[in-house]
Amino acid sequence: MDSILIQGGVALQGKVRIQGSKNAALPVLAATLLTGEGSLIKNCPRISDVYAMVSLLKGLGCSVCWQENGISIDASSVQRCEIGDRAVTGMRSSLCLLGALIGRCGRVVMEHPGGCVIGRRPIDLHLAALEQMGVAFQEEGGKLRAEADRLCGAHIVLPFPSVGATENVVLAAVLAEGDTLLEGAALEPEVETLCRYLKCCGARIEGAGGGTLLIRGGRRLCGTEFAIPADRIVAGTYLFGCIGAGGSVFLEEAPWQEMGAVLRLAEDMGGRICTSREGIYVQAPCRPAAAGCVRTAPYPGFPTDLQSVVLAVAAAADGESLIRETIFENRFRVVEELRRMGAVIEEEGVDVVRVRGTERLRGARVESRELRGGAALAVAGIMAQGETAVTGCQYIYRGYENICRDLRELGARVTSA
């Protein structure tokens, strides 16, 4: 199913359950390698990135079985430490296997990780941090080789709060000799989720959720049951979709505690937001207000993964918005496609766009070129007048279990082709 067809112009109504988090599930799945036992990972989203990670784990020797309530993973037979699967070059999050396999096996050979084309995203922070723990890296024939005769704790200071580098240090440190003090750690909730899983397995980690982590290594880890929390980016996508298309929706199990910057912007754009233990209720304005000045930033700032969706909604808002991207330099690939739908967007440099809201977007044939931009085009489609065809949907399916089903549950006229 490569295309999504949308008949736009219908206000959203109803409720939808928010799926498990992609960005939390992938590092937790990688962390199962460290236990040498079985784990049951519940509420794991059925998305292509998770299927790719499952394929990688099977290739390493894990026994993996999908169950009704999650994924059962037995890592007791892992012996291989070479990852040559195409899933590595197609999925950036495969990089967290680096720290996990270094911790488990002491060596790794892998392809360079890929994913969406949204910028350079160098891995030098990962390599520099792991080198301080005794890991030696070489490049051979386009592959990355890592070896550690003795993996030791270290005092590591990250110059930028990289989520992936933080996760790799944590994964390597839990089985290393001695303690690791990590300063400048990423604050994203997905890092805390990884720490919670490892602590359930018996790891000793102090400071989870903060910028300084102390990982006391050397303890044997056991298997466990663990539930993946709901996806804050999927919740934000549907929240802004409602604000753009109109209506009122309930986002069941949405993790509103992790969405402070998102909810503040939604209210600034005219949304009425109510939160409860069960999720988020949002009532849209007659027409969204301009977003004002939006600047993406590491958590708890506004997430780069929702910048494209806000851009789509701002294109039909009342007034002018200025959006600055500070995380990835190629995050505005969706601009050209939104212009096909009548959006008035001016690029004021590689990291800033000015959006002048138009009364109504119009349906068009547009192409998704990366995950979050593809979701933004689907949101633009439900807002637009007429029919929109979104192609390249393999990118969307990397992070959304069934975006067509979810939008239909909210009353949108959406089909896949």
Q: Keywords for this structure?
A:
UDP-n-acetylglucosamine1-carboxyvinyl-transferase, Chain; 2 domains; single chain; alpha/beta; four-stranded mixed sheet; 417 residues
Structural features, described:
There is one protein chain. This protein has 417 residues and is α/β, with parallel strands linked by helices. It has two domains: 4-19 and 230-416, Enolpyruvate transferase domain (UDP-n-acetylglucosamine1-carboxyvinyl-transferase, Chain, Alpha-beta prism), CATH 3.65.10.10; 22-227, Enolpyruvate transferase domain (UDP-n-acetylglucosamine1-carboxyvinyl-transferase, Chain). Helix content is 30%, strand content 25%. The chain has helices at 22-31, 48-59, 86-90, 96-105, 124-131, 163-173, 189-200, 232-245, 260-268, 307-314, 335-340, 371-383, 403-409, and strands at residues 4-7, 12-17, 38-42, 63-67, 70-74, 82-83, 107-111, 136-140, 143-147, 155-157, 179-183, 204-206, 212-216, 225-227, 247-252, 272-276, 279-283, 293-295, 320-324, 344-347, 352-356, 365-367, 387-391, 413-416. A hairpin with a 4-residue loop joins β20 and β21.
Q: What fold name goes in the CATH topology slot of the largest domain?
A: UDP-n-acetylglucosamine1-carboxyvinyl-transferase, Chain
Widest sheet, order of strands: 22-23-1-24
Mean pLDDT: 93
> Level of helix content?
25-40%
Give the termini distance in whole angstroms.
5 Å
3D shape: elongated
Count of distinct strands: 24
Largest sheet: 4 strands, mixed
Which percent band covers the strand fraction?
A: 25-35%
Query: What is the number of helices?
Result: 13
